[in-house]
Structure prediction request, 481 residues.
Amino acid sequence: MTTTLDRQDIQGLVTRGYSTLPRAGFLVFAITQPTAARAALGRLARRVTNGLSEPSDTAVNLAFTSDGLRRLGLETPELGGFPYEFVSGMTAPDRSRFLGDVGENAPRYWRWGGPATPPVHVLVMLYARDEQRLHRLEEETRQGALAGGALAETIRLGTAELTGHEPFGFRDGISQPLVEGLSKAEGLSKAAAAGAGGGGEGDQVVRAGEFVLGYPNEYGLLTDRPLLPSRYDPDGLLPRTPQGAADFGRNGSYLVFRQLRQDVEAFWGYLDAQTRRPDGSSDPAARDALAARMVGRWSGGAPLVHAPRQDDPALATDNDFGYFATDPDGLRCPLGAHIRRANPRDSLDPRPGSAESVSIGRRHRLLRRGRPYGPDGSGDGTGARGLHFIGLNANISRQFEFIQHTWLNDPDFNGLHDAPDPLVGPRQDNRSTFTEQGRPVRTRHLALPQFVTVRGGAYFFLPGLRALHWLCTAAPEGGQQ
Ligand code: HEM
Prediction:
């Protein structure tokens, strides 16, 4: 079965990461005057970039929290079609516990999106080919959005120039699910359909409904989405379901935004201390190898399952591998490595190595669209470095939250103990460990410090373009004033 995506109605960030637009800035707004805000956002909506073709100079995308949708006029009954975790928000106490946003990660310490910071309603994502263009785009957006006090700027989240490497120094953005219906996936989908198994490239093709609402997902079903009685849309701006409901969700996606501060010095300092020679001197090669084992790839990108001893530039973007046939015991890529947890490929129970195992994994994928920030202070205001982690999915609880809670943060993942994700996981007292499986003996690294801390975040909805237009021009008024 082939899926045709309505790219003209899908926001561009779903179809591409804008790697040709290396400068980006994210403006977060609170809606102060809903009626005027609708008009201002309506003007901005006309500039929103769709998913059809690669933009050459700039791109604009627009997303809303559930509070933002409420302010614009969608009241509780209409929000009923949105999932609980989106409506209650990332900082609801049960979500915080589930996500590991406790201790240092607790929302009360966040720079934005927390209980002690100004409201978060609208996220304006701006991308440009160079700094000058980005600056101009930001100024135009501010003038339009802030004119007349319709919206108040909650925070500006700057980014570092895109280099393809995240702040710890590793090549990032290599492994992405290939969305069925988008060109790159086409050639590979046949292999997937044939049940290639093994976790390799053909297995990375995922049904469009895992990322875009209104299309079949990995269960062969349409993911739940907000539908409205047709009377809300007398002019027929929104697509219709076969039953005649106005489809506000179609072509939309949920956008998970987390500002993750990376303590680069602590990371390399810990690795250095763990790998010193008996005479106390540094051993850079051993240090870099331990870092690679924590990630599952060398800093240049080569995966450890194919390059277990040293980095191999020829494998920098290699994504054609599984774990079960080559490395079931984690002797090449440790069982607790970041990429092995974030996407276990073919190692999931009950039958690791089987097509069934791979197909279970396909229900827990994310499109990652993050951007690094710092160290020039543009991101955190403190000179800190980190990642504006941005994940797109159609079901926040089954995709982002599951990966975060059940795979990354779980200290007992895959038969391990006291072993949360070595790179990004929160720590429990001084007990967190990282184990390199080995024969005849394994090597354990104890008392792992916390290298990544959450500094802000929210769940957003990235509507389709028609839904965006409807929201700003035709949605029933009467949001909270
Ligand atoms: C500051 C925090 C983080 C850093 C520095 C980081 C770094 C990396 C690196 C270096 C890779 C390998 C390159 C690639 O395949 O693109 C990777 C892969 C990945 N990360 Fe992260 N990551 C972070 C947070 C997260 C979070 C919070 C999640 C999900 C909740 C996540 C999910 C993934 C996934 C799904 C992959 C691809 C795995 C695969 O398919 O092989 N990461 N990350």
